Amino acid sequence: MRFTVLIIEDDPTMIDSLRSVLETRLDDVKVEGTGFEKARTTVESLRPDAVIMDVFEDQTGSTASAGATWEHIWDVHFCPVVVHSARDMPTFLEGKQQHPFVCFQPKTADSQERVVDKLASYRTHVDSLRAFNDEVAMKAAESLRHVSLLVWKEAANENDRRDILVRLTRRRLAASFDSPTYGGTRMQAWEQYIYPPLSSDLLTGDILRETRGDPDEPSAFRVVLSPSCDLVVSQGAVEKALVARCDRVSKWLKKVGLDATTAEKKLRERLPKEVTRDQQEGVRILPGLPDHIPLMAVDLKDLHLVPLTAIDLTDGDAGRDFVRVCSIDSPFREQLAWAYVQVCGRPAMPVTNAADFTEKIIRTIKAGKGA
Fold it and tell me: What's 277's DSSP letter?
């Protein structure tokens, strides 16, 4: 499949030079070039698979034009970007240098070869990004086609039709992506997390971390158990969220009869079964999320109430006690809620004489009266 590359550069000689290297090194590549004045409109019309861009500086020394172009690519038309410039790393790349689809390459004698090497490494992933975008467009069209019939039958008011059409299409589109993809590889356990979180309110299953807590220490984390509907701030249903404290994996291992001394062969035999259980004696295992959450256990009996005002839903800079790290997606969210119901919904029963009860059952069976 053709690989479309856009070069945003005010030096025509550099554009021609990069084009020559790209067309020599990469198969089936389409290369377009533009200056910064037309960069945004070119991105919108061409929809490139990858971008090489300089850091343009106008006569006043401002790089605002380059920053605006970058923001459009980052926020609207997401694709791999190689910033190729003789200047220092621009401020708009701060905090993004570690992103796998962002690269800053200083202009040097052999930098063009390195730029092309980087684009070549992106190519396989670009094919996946393009396929995903095509799938989104196809599913959106399918959802609109089916939903429109329902809306026009049920709603007579044009304003109602417009609002319902958007809501239903979004819901059907989201549901279409929840359907399993047959023939694909099995999802990784950590894929159940939604990072960064999407909802403006807390949800059941949201993972919280103590703002000053060690992100590698499970005890710094909490899992929200309150029903999502009660956590909508505008509804004012509750002022505090019920949370469960997290702990190290050893706590869960103990509940399932395993520990660090268990033979590796036995661990490999037992763990695939144990990790699928809702909970074991009130403890549930949670996967780690790279760089954000350690592998940990959540104790559904170790409960606490946390004021909603003590939870930062943004970036952890609000000076609150907890910051929300991520959400747990459906149906894993519902599985967590069900695990908690199994624990808290169990009626408290008095201790009975099990030995006497057992003897009476045995006598009945042996007498042939209950077999």
Answer: S
Per-residue pLDDT reduced to its tens digit, 97-135: 889 999 999 999 889 999 999 999 999 898 888 888 888
3-state SS string for 112-135: HHHHHHHHHHHHHHHHHHHHHHHH
The torsion angles phi and psi of 23, rounded to 5 degrees, stand at -70, -25
Question: Whole-angstrom Cα distance, residue 218 to residue 297?
Answer: 8
Residue 340: per-residue pLDDT? 96
Report d(CA 221, CA 326) in Å as an integer.
11
Residues in CB range of 33: below 8 A, 6 or more apart = 6, 7, 8, 9, 12, 15, 16, 18, 19
Does 290 have pLDDT greater than 70?
A: yes
Q: What are phi and psi of 222, to 5 degrees?
A: -135, 155
Please name which of 58, 54, 3, 55 lies closest in space to residue 32, comparing C-alpha atoms: 3
49-86 tens-digit pLDDT: 999 999 875 555 556 678 888 999 999 999 999 999 98
Compute the distance between CA of residue 360 and CA of residue 364 in angstroms, rounded to an integer. Answer: 6
**Which pTM does this prediction carry?**
0.78
Q: Find, among 297, 300, 291, the residue nearest to 253 by Cα.
A: 297
Backbone angles phi, psi at 145, to 5 degrees: -65, -45
The backbone torsions φ and ψ at residue 135, rounded to the nearest 5 degrees and listed phi first, read -65, -40
Do the Cβ atoms of 204 and 331 come closer than 8 Å? no
Kind and range of the H or E run holding 167? helix 158-178
Rg (CA), the chain: 28
